[in-house]
Design goal:
about 5% strand, mainly alpha, about 170 residues, single chain, 5 helices, Four Helix Bundle (Hemerythrin (Met), subunit A)
Amino acid sequence: MLWYTLLVLAIAAERCIELVVARRNAAWTLARAGVEHGRGHYPVMVALHTALLVGCLIEPVLGGRPFLPALGWPMLGIVVLAQALRWWCIATLGPYWNTRVIVVPGARLVRAGPYRFARHPNYVAVVAEIAALPLVHSAWLTATVITTANAVLLGVRVHCENTALAGAAAA
């Protein structure tokens, strides 16, 4: 359980690094007349991602969830691939990447890197990580509840982002 706790704490630290990058990028985009959209769902997203990490730490202990190698190792592989995809997205979008929806009017859509293959590859990484991280240590309840809640939230988020991007392109 110690190595799993360290993994979850490493993911939490990675999230903190993302927030530093996002804050820097928000300042950059806002200085270029960027407009933020979807402020109302952002606190829900933060709470959901926090609940994921807390659930990953608590459920294996309280629920007596064992590490099952046939499940845990493949899920760890998915978590690692999700991190790689997320950072590929961050590197590709550069200063336009953010945890918030901030759009600079007139900016062109990025169609390089993973955006050649999918419109929202960062969300592919998020979905994979949310489903896989709890299952590394058999936290199936956390995986089920948070994945379901994330599906609802992601519907709101993608709609918000698509609307914001379409509005910026029309401007």
